[in-house]
Queue: 2 jobs
Job 1
Amino acid sequence: MNRIGRLQLAAFQPVILALALVVIMAIAGIITPGFLTFRHFKMVLYCNTMLGILALAQTVVILSGGIDLSIGSTYWITIMTGALLMVDKGFVTGSIVCILLGAAIGALNGIGISKLKIPYVVMTLAMMIILTGTLYVTTGGGGRGRAATELIRLSSGRVFGFPIITLVWILLTLLFYILLRMTAFGWKVRALGSNISACHCSGINISRIQTGVYMISGTLAAVAGLFYLGWARTPYPTFQSGAGVGANIMLQSIAAVIIGGTMFSGGRGGVGRTFLGVLVLAVLFSILSMAGLGVEWQIMLNGVIILAIVGLHSRVKLH
Amino acid sequence: MADDRLRKFVLDWYIYIVLVVFWIVSSSISPFFRTMSTFSTIFVSAVPIALVGLGQTFVVLSRGFDLSVGVVASLATAIASVTMHWGIGPSIGLILVVSCAIGMINGLGVSKLGIDSFIMTLGMMFLLTGVTLLIRPSPGGFIPVNFKRFLLYQVGEFPLVPVLILFLTGCVGVLVLQKRRFGREIYAVGGDPESAKMSGVDVDRTRIKVFMVSALSAACAGLFVSARIGSGNAEAGAPYLFDSFTAVFMGGTLVTGGIGGYRGTIASALIIASIGHILQFLGITIWYHFIVKGLLLAGVAGLQLFVVSRERNR
């Protein structure tokens, strides 16, 4: 296949993915009764809301030609900050501080990458270790603090029988769909991912866009963190995959973006595809856990999915 | 003239000057630091960093990243702890073959399929994390006493074998990069892959070999770690991922590839090992080490690019 072929494959990936999703769900539904009910589907969506928001953030970063490896640890540090603050400062202060903290971490990443020219891999990897260390220094590694009652009500609340936080996720996806398609900022983000030197020549303020992108990522990670806090009530951070806190969910967010069909090299893709990617990942995980396979299989599945999809795209590029 | 020569000397060896100054300052501050047992521990803990740093130096020089080095080291400890009861030889053989295969897959993906080295090795990292957790869900297993004794062999308080390993690794790294055809090809590929190709370098082959060296040296680091902790542990190799990057960048190898070498990496490995030690002496808990290491990694990478851009503008 030539270059056109590759573009067509990327364009059709959502369609193929939707078909695959239907087939997987049909098979799972035949094997396990109760899988194909609306109630179960709602539950799967609800449980993966946090992942969905993180994957949304990751999509924006990957579209701009970067990646945020610190997204999982930002998520966890806002969770723990919220839990510690909400004990005596209340819901409003706690939430505002969390979101500001997320934005500040994103801004630091963005400044390091755009102004100091540190490669994004190194910068966000370093941020991930720094945040992991900070988290354990402040909490001692155990579960501490507690979510405010309002937050618990928000995370478990429903409108017309549909979870509020899942609705927020869907609304955010729509918002970013519009933002990326119809605003100058969105076009600049895509342009940055497609060709950074062309952007430079056409006078786009690259460092401002990059900082903005990482700030969006940090802020959305904080929002997801708050939702998780309300869901878990007293959070307990775990040191995962030997790579720092939040490594698993960081990887899942990247896997969801790539499985959705956003090109890793940046520029091409979108948040709608990532939504579909999260659905596929969520259904696969729920099948894995129904089969009694533990978290190590999930980690492995993530790796296999990333390698398979990235390999597929590049194999097509060859011919 | 003499001024220029001094300047060049300082630029070439600055990391060793930093190391010596660091040791002198720490020794004068802390009486515990200036004992042989401290230096012995520093050398022993520098060995895995230097080994992982060897492969990472090759990869970074060829304009890539290898995020799977930490987990390859973990995998080596896991396989060692499960298979050492067959005998030390077969177990080491198996580990080397497995790591070679992993490196080859990484290299094939990066060169033949044209996948970004970062995403290729990230996928590999998590794939192998799953495998390692399946092999060794909890720390433990069997490592023969002979194997441990040999790798950690000391004369008095002087860690003879670890220092020899450091020395040999250093010789191999520097000589291969400076004197061998393979080494020069790495610089050519990292400097500019297009012109390397035009001048007859087999770019794909060099890339594959580079990733194989990286996986092999990470596996050797894993073997040393398993001897040190006397068991297998799925998390044991993880810290060496960050350490390898810090060692490579602090040693003067450019993030953008093509410039640098192994000489700096090995001194940085000693510095990183010493920093861990001095933090312990100051009574700072292990979690602060993460913060220090993260700041060091970002700081070193930022400073390096700053210095390079200033040199270019001169």
Note: Chain B has one domain: 35-313.
Job 2
Amino acid sequence: MKHLQLTDIWVQYSKGEPVLQGLELEVDRGELVALLGPSGCGKTTTLRLIAGFMTPQKGKILIGGKDFTRAPAHKRNIGIVFQSYALFPHMTVWLNITYGLRIRNVGKEEKSRRGRKITEMLGLEGLENRYPSQLSGGQQQRVALARALAIQPDILLMDEPLSNIDPKFRERVRAEIRKVQKELDIATVYVTHDQEDALGIADRVAVMNRGRIEQISAPVEIYEKPKTRFVADFMGFENIFPIRPVSNSERLTVTVDGAELKVEARDPEAKYVAFHPAKLTISTEPEPEYERIEGKIVDWSYKGDRVKYFLKTAIGEVAVLSSIKNLAVGNEAYVCYRPQDVLLLRE
Amino acid sequence: MKIPFLALSLVTLALLLTPIVMPLLIAFSTSESISYPPHGFTLRWFANVFNYESFINGFLASSSIASVASCLAIALSLPSSYILYRQKNLKIKELMENLFTLPMLMPEIVLSYMLLIFVYRALGVVSVLSLIIGHTLVVLPFGMRVIHASLSNLGVDIEDAAVSLGRDRLGAFVDVVLPNIRHGFVGGSLMCFMVSFNAVSISLFLSFGEAVPLPIAMLNYLQIRYDPTIAALSAMMVAFTVALSLGVEKTVGFVSGVK
């Protein structure tokens, strides 16, 4: 049995569409699951449910096999890192970190041992007597993490923890969070709207849309093999076209606007095809090992090491990321693809 | 561009300050009645203020009423501001905010008259209690504003953080919310005190003999005598109010206080 289990969760505020519609989520001990989605998809609500700041109208939340659906927030042993860090401004770093231990009446020696261990782990030695206002953003973030971890929580929740960190340092902070989380072997739910953030830190990424998890898989799988139109779109597949399947032979072909595309995958319920701009190449000569679509360049934008071309083709406008930089608007060119790179998507 | 702007500012400032500065000058005048321009220099009108018992009693009455009203207003503001600050439904929040600000928008004279009818006629209260009820109602919105502003600046995450660490709601409020809005308490009380101290019409309508607030004592004095004692007292009240304002400014700032 997984450590954290959410089954068939429904949440609806006063009126309108429910915020969560039958959400299912499982997180293992030591696993980091990122909830990824646009604002309003229900990811923060999910976090607040696990924390106990609200209760669902329907559904169950199990932690370590025990039902916590209606347990008050202060009776759940859950560490939270808030987006705003929410450090106590009138307490020093040390008092912030050991607050949870004082509430739990942990003995003096045990308290200072645990406090010191977590302070060291997060590299906060020497800052114990400072106040939060005297710390940099990165240091405040580490104090927030230390405070949440000091209580040895059953679950760690993180709400957009990197959104207030300078983009230059995000990668490093991400690695730090990951290291501590693995070292303590703690089940973690990480909420973010940033695709790069989620892919870079999580064991599994759950892409949420309109109160449901559309797909939950390892980062590589989510990025390379999205299953639905929404996930593909969120992962940057710019080329998504509605299809009509035409044959059921070994190599399936699909029809987009009357033009045929070769695909390897099969899915009778597929409604769209998609290819990632980076999986396509552009060429002025037909290349034998690739399938091709004829097109004409209508626009391009410079991306540094590569150029993104937009071509008008029989199936619609296609975006291609290419290392060829000398093509211009109006040039005829082929969009080359391999059938195995064409994804079939459901609605 | 810069010079005309500066000149305009100075003219405006002069217009605003003249009515305050005039009595200050008259307060030091040696002439027996309030007249302009002032003659000579004396401090006897200031001494005179302290010889007139009604002024001393008035000051004591005004400051006691203001103190009690401020404490009551702050005590009432705390729970209502808290509900307002945790309120997630924006429509209810806006409605509550408007409701609590209403007494501030109502002309004080109208409010005073209605209170007179209500407190005196309906409740039958004819004592210093009526003044306290009236003053509390008048200063309540000011207390509310300051306390609510302090809570809003603090944000709700900090309380949720304490709860997630194992403290119950009330404990979290005491541990991490109260200590961080203490400036709001001080500033809010000072502001309430100041507003109450200067609320003339409410005192005029609701004082029934035994406790006569200072502004009423001043009006009464003016009806009998017309000498610079009043000017001297006014000067002292200006100084007192300015000192209180500086106190408010130091603790919460006018901007966050009045919004």
Note: Confidence is low (pLDDT under 50) at residues 255-259 of chain B.
